[in-house]
Protein: Molybdopterin-binding oxidoreductase
Organism: Mycolicibacterium hippocampi
Amino acid sequence: MLSITQSTSPGICRICSAHCGVLATVTDGKLTKVTGDPDNPMFKGYTCAKGRALPEIHNNPARLLHSQKRQPDGTYAPVESERAMDEIAALLRELIDRHGPRSVAMYLGTNGLPYPASPLMANAFLRGIESPMFFTANTIDQPGKQIALAAHGHWLGGDVNFNEADSWLLVGTNPIVSKAIGIPGQNPAQRLKEAIGRGMKLIVIDPRRSQTAARAAIHIQPRPGEDASILAAMINLIIREQLCDTEFLAQNVEGFDELAEAVGGFTPEYVAERADVPASQLIDAARLFATYGTRRGMVNCGTGANFAMHGSLLEYLALCLTTICGRWQRAGEPVTRPNTLLPAYTAKAQPLPPYEGWDYGERLRVRGLTDTVSGMPTAALADEILLEGEGQVKALICIGGNPMAAWPDQRKTQRAMEKLELLVTLDTEMSLTSRLAHYVIAPKMQMETPAMTQGSELIKYYAAGTGIPAAYAQYAPRLVEPPPGSDLVEEWQFFLGLAKRMNLTLFFVNFFGGGGGRYMESPPIVLTMDADTDLTTEELFAEMCATARIPLDEVARHPHGKIFDVDAVVQERDPDCMARLDIGNEYLLGDLAVVLAEDFRSARDDAAFPYRLIPRRHPNFMNSSGTNLAGLNRGKPYNPAYMHPDSIAALGAQLGTAVTITSPHDSIPAVLEPDDTLRRDVIAMHHAFGGLVAEDAEFRHRGSNVGRLVPTDIEYDAITGLPRQGNIPVRVTAGIAG
Ligand SMILES: Nc1nc2c(c(=O)[nH]1)N[C@H]1C(S)=C(S)[C@@H](COP(=O)(O)OP(=O)(O)OC[C@H]3O[C@@H](n4cnc5c(=O)[nH]c(N)nc54)[C@H](O)[C@@H]3O)O[C@H]1N2
Ligand SMILES: Nc1nc2c(c(=O)[nH]1)N[C@H]1C(S)=C(S)[C@@H](COP(=O)(O)OP(=O)(O)OC[C@H]3O[C@@H](n4cnc5c(=O)[nH]c(N)nc54)[C@H](O)[C@@H]3O)O[C@H]1N2
Ligand code: SF4
Ligand SMILES: [Mo]
C-alpha cells in the first residue's frame, strides 16, 4: 500500500510586502497547497491568487534546480554552486585588480524582500570590496518618497491609522491590487470596506477607474501627469479658505509662506483645464479632505503618479498637504506602527528636522547624478556599463531583479548587459536577464527558507502610509525541503561564500530607520563575518532580531502570527525640541514653478502622439514573475494594451487587434483589449513583459516591453534620475511595424 505523508503548517507568503500568513500543505516532501490561514489574527484567512500559486511557483518545471554557467557556444550547463563561487570570486578579484572596485556593481530587485538577510549581505559584500556601486529597484520605483522626506523631515509621532480615519487621499496608487501603500496591505479590500462602512470618505486621483477608485466618494479622473498641479490646487484652496491646522503649523512647521506663494498660481479653474476635470470636483475634494469627520487621514501617492515626472515634487506636496492639515499622530494617541520584530522606540509628537537628501557621495559619470537617500540612480547604470573610461562598470551581480524586463530603455539595457565582462544573476529561473548572464545562481525558494515579518515592518521607514499598522509579527520555519537532487544556495550564503574565497571581512549591518541610515530610531546591529563564520539562516535571523521589541523566540511561539499587546502611546514633545518640518523647500518648490511654466496645451494637442501610456499592476503577476504559470496567466501570458472601447472603435480595431505603439523614443507591438474604466486618451499596460530585443515577434506569448518606449536621458528627475515611465506620449497604429 502507498503511504502518503502530509502535513499542513502556518507559513508566510512574501511575494509582496503584505506578508500574508498562510497555511502550507506538504505532501510527500512537496509543497502541494497554500491557502489563507483562518487562525492568523491579522489576515483571517486572506490570500491572493499569487500566494495560492506558491506550490506551482515552487514546482514550476522552469525552475532552476542547479546553477548555470554559460558555455562558449552560448548554451548553459549546470555548474556546482561551490564551483561557481570559486570561479566568480576569482573573476571578481581579477576585475578589481585590473579596474578597481568601482568596476563591480550590484543590482537588487524586488525579490530581496522575501529573504531579509539577502539585501543586507549583498550590501555588506559590496562594502567589503569597497565598491560604492550598489543599486536597487527603488530608484526606478518611487525614489521621490525618500527625497521628499529628507526635505520635509519626519514626524516622530508617526502615521495616522487608516483603520480609524474618516478621510483619505490616494494619488495614482491602487492598493486593492498592489497592497503597497495607503490602505493597509493586509487584506486591503476588506480594510477599505470596513472603513467605508464606518463612514470614511475616500478620494482617489487616477486616470483609470481602478478597483480602488471604484469605491471612492470622489474619484478625480484627470489626464495623467497632472498630480502635482492637482495637489498644488488643493493646497492653494485649503490655504485660501483658511482650513489649515494653524496650531500645528505654528508649533511644528516652517516654510508656510513659501508654500503659499508657490501654489498661488494653481487656481481650481487653471488646474481644471490642465487636468481636464471639473473645477468643482477639485474644490469638493480639497474641502472634504480638509474638513470631513473628526479623525482625518493622510495623502499617499503610488507609482502611477510618481512615474509621470516631478515625482520628488509630488511626494513633497503630498507631505505638505498632510502637514498643513496636521495629519500626524499626536501626543496621547496610540502609535500606529509600534514595531514588533524591530526595536521598541519612543514615539514623540515632534519633528525630526530635514536632512541632506541628495547631491552627495558617489558621483555618476552621466547626467550629474549622485548617490541620494533613495540610493544610486538605477536608470543610469546601463550608461555606467556602456561608457568607456575610468570607473566603467565591468561586472554586475543581479539579485532577484530583472533589468531586461524592468529597466527603462530596453535596447540600451541589452547593449549594456551584453557588454559586461561578468554578469551574474541570482534567480529562480532563466529570466530575460539570466539569458544574457555568464552565471545564474539558483537559490532556494520562499517555503524552503525560514520566514519572518521584520522586512514588512521595516518599510514604514521608507514612506508614510506603508508598513503593518499593528504590533503584529510572525515567524515560520522552513516548511519543505528543496527538490531532491537539487543544488541551491540561499542568496546571503552565496555572498558569504564569495567573501570567504576573497579573504574579506564583512560588516553585516541591520539598521532601523529612514534616510538610508541617516535617520535612526535605534542603533544598528553590526555583525562581523569572515572565513571562520559558520551560521544558519535561523541563527542569523536571531541576530537580526536581537533588539526586537518582542523577542523572536516569543514570536515563534505563535506560529499563526500574533498581534501583541503593546502599550505604545505617542509622548509629548521634548520641552527643548526646536525642530521643525519644512514645507518651503526652495529646490522642490522651484520645480512647481517649472510645472506652472509648462506649455500643457501644446503637449495635450500633439497630433503625433495623441495618447498617454500609463502603468498599472496585474493582480496575478508580481512584475515579471509568474507570467509563465498556467494557474496565474489563465491562458494569457502577455500584457495587453488596454484602451477605452470608443478609442478602439475609433481606430477601426477590436479586441485582439495587433497594433504598434510608438513613443518619441521607440516602438513596441501589442494586443488591444477594451477597458471602459480608462479615459479615452490613455492606454494602460503592465510593465516587465516581452522578450529580448530580437523577440518582438513573440508578443502574443511574451507580451510587450513598456520600458522600450522610455529613454533614460531625455526626461528624467534631476535628483534621482527616474525617467518618465508613465504618462508616455504615444500613438497607436494598426498592424505590426516590420
Ligand atoms: N515601464 C515601467 N517600468 C517599470 C515599472 C513600471 O510600472 N513601468 N515599475 C518599476 C518598479 S516599481 C519596479 S519595483 C521595478 C522592478 O524591477 P525588478 O525587481 O528588476 O524586476 P522583477 O520583475 O520584479 O524581477 C524579479 C526577478 O526575481 C526573480 N525571482 C522570482 N522569485 C525569486 C526568488 O525567490 N529568489 C530570487 N533570487 N529571484 C526570484 C524573477 O524570476 C525575476 O527575474 O520595475 C520598474 N520598471
Ligand atoms: N499584484 C501585484 N502587486 C504588486 C506588484 C505587481 O506587479 N503585481 N508590484 C509591486 C510593486 S514593485 C510596486 S512598486 C507596487 C506599486 O503599487 P501601485 O503604485 O499601487 O501600482 P498600481 O497598482 O499599478 O497603481 C497605480 C495606479 O496609478 C494609476 N496611474 C497611472 N498613471 C497615473 C497618473 O499620471 N496619475 C495618477 N494619479 N494615476 C496614474 C494607474 O491607473 C493605477 O491605477 O505594487 C506592488 N504590488
Ligand atoms: S497579497 Fe502579497 S503576501 Fe499576500 S498572498 Fe498575495 S502576494 Fe502573497
Ligand atoms: Mo516597485
